[in-house]
Design a protein that fits this description.
It is a single chain. This protein has 54 residues and is mostly helical. The chain contains one helix and no strands. It starts with 9 loop residues before the first helix and ends in an 18-residue tail after the last helix.
Length: 54
């Protein structure tokens, strides 16, 4: 059969689409959280370091 080259694995293609949909939803959630709770940028963890004992 010469049509074997044109066969499509629907389960594999569906898996790719579902993965893309989950990635899109994850990106939307990440953007929503970044807008609601913006992360501080540029500062290192020096403010969180323990004070020196005297």
């Amino acid at each position: 059969m010469s049509n074997d080259d044109k066969l499509i694995d629907f389960s594999a293609e569906r898996g790719k689409r579902i993965h893309d949909l989950h990635d899109k939803k994850l990106d939307e959630m990440r953007q929503a959280f970044e807008q609601a709770l913006p992360l501080p940028k540029g500062k290192k963890s020096s403010a969180k370091s323990k004070p020196k004992k005297r």
